[in-house]
Amino acid sequence: MSVHSVTFELGSGRKVTRMRFPLVPATAITIHKSQGQTYAQHGADLRGVFCSGQAYVGISRGTGRDGTRIMDVLPRESIYCDVEALREMERLRGVQPPPVGVMPINPPSC
Predict the structure, then answer these.
(1) In a domain, 17, yes or no
(2) How many structural domains is the chain composed of?
(3) Per-residue pLDDT for the chain (110 aa), expressed as one digit of tens each?
(4) Considering the domain boundaries, does residue 8 fall inside one?
(5) Do the domain assignments include residue 106?
(6) CA–CA separation, 101 and 47 (whole Å)
(7) Which residue in 26, 22, 18, 19 sits closest to 1, CA to CA?
(8) What is the value of pTM for the model shown?
């Protein structure tokens, strides 16, 4: 950000300097409310992460890496997995999918 300054001379010989810096309009939203949304540019402050998956949601809202900014140093303890999700993933790794010929071509609609 660059600061712009302009100096004026008053009639009495005194000088006055006015300093301005540009502001960009922005909004803020919680990680929970951002779920399901996509942003071209966004910043994520992950210091207050208290739930599994929050860091992922906070970081993954952007359309690309260039538009994503992590506002502070990311604490290692901010990124963790839900224990139940890990157990289910391990369980699914052991399950063999049915042969391709057995799968229906048009699955029934719900």
Answers:
(1) no
(2) 1
(3) 677 888 988 888 888 998 888 888 888 888 889 888 999 988 888 887 888 788 888 888 989 888 888 888 777 776 777 888 888 888 888 887 766 665 555 544 54
(4) no
(5) no
(6) 50
(7) 22
(8) 0.53
